[in-house]
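Exercise 7.
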Amino acid sequence: EIIKLMEDSKVEYHEVKELATKLAEAEIIERIAGGDMTNGSCSSLAFAYAGNKIGFDVLDFRDGTSRLNFSRSTIINDIATHVGGTVVEHTSDFIKANKLLEQVKPGKEYYFTCGKHAAIVRKTASGGYEYLELQSSKSNGFKELNRSELKYRFGAQQSHRFHGKAYNTKDCIIDIDLLKKDATFRKLLGYINTQPDKQRKGEKGTIK
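Solution. The predicted structure, written as tokens, is:
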């Protein structure tokens, strides 16, 4: 269904090939990260990182309909449900984040959404959490994930309200290994994959 939506949206498809050699974490970050010159590619970038980690040659910062589709919470949550990830619902982004992060196991990486942002997350040896910054023009890589970062980087809200009434929103977490096992993930990455000279990133780009 998600692939059909991409086709119906006329998102250009670029075949994703396997990497000739496995890349180290720092090499993946170096090749896909950069100052974001799109309207916000956090979600598709996190999927692109997962793709590279699995062993696929995929780049992002495409923008347009591709970025828009992969930033929609309905599509993201559909992907999570399809591959066996976890989707939670609550009025508070912080409560959702706590529930989702409880699932994070040491030595594993996950696609994670909270508030207005999506990122790769992992657990540290000391029991804390880190998120992967990929949209900075100056400083990318894993950074401490705490309540302050959830509020200011992820845009987490204590309560979602409309006309004074609280309402539920959804967020999700996906073990990268689940994406690796999914037969359609490589095809899905083709709707993110971008030619090197078409990447909209650079020094003038900013985190979004």
